[in-house]
Amino acid sequence: MNEGHAITGAAIANCLGTDNATVFERAFAGAEAFSPSAAYHEFPFTTALGILPAFTPGPDDVLACTPTRLANVALASVRQLRPHVRAAAARWGSRRIAYVFASSTGGLEQTERAMAPSGGAPRTEVRYADHGIDATTEAIMRFLGIEGLQMAVSTACSSSFKALASASRLIDHGLADAVVVGSADSLCRTTVFGFHSLGLTAPTATQPFSRERNGITLGEGSAYVLIERATEATRRGALAWVAGRARPPTRSITRARTPRGSVGSCACARRSSAPASRRTRSIA
Fold it and tell me: What span, in angstroms and rounded, lies between the C-alpha atoms of 162 and 165?
């Protein structure tokens, strides 16, 4: 079986913290990390939000773009990944490292600030360049010192997995030897109002495994990985492996459903895992 591509670096930032160590330490300690929504905006309803803690970037941790909320959320992870990317550039050259970014919000929060300022904030100029999903792409590539292909993906909740699959294909087809794959979403009023209008947000922190569960909690954060072609050097430094891709077409899920549901789910899982060369029972 093909071993796939090596994950040689990873970074995460969210409401638990702005670096890997803090996020994992607080997560396993069961820390309370959600805040009342009023800490972000005065909504006409009650809910909780996962708000990225403030952090002070180092003197070299500066992106050459508008300092939007999305840029700040992405930077929290990107700055952690930079040493790994520099090592990859030494192996492959900067032109052989691609960048694939995924987001569902892009710079929407910045556009909201410009078109509908809140909390007494002054109205600012609307810049379409700050609105797009790829608004931070060039700045992050310069920050990391990479010059390969670039892609931006926005397919709602599946965005980050689509980005990872796209990155794997770039390596498979010889278009890159390494890929920085990142995903970031910032809070914005449009998202919070939208999920609330569907009756999906919980008034307090979500309790997904409770009998009293009554909705979800929205938040912001970022996660980045560096994947590389398998070599002796990358095998030694691998944290994990991207061993395959599973993407069931929506129409297959629909056809696979049965009144009982379980048979359809198993059939769908088998079809999904086939491209990744994985048996259904081996997937935890």
Answer: 5
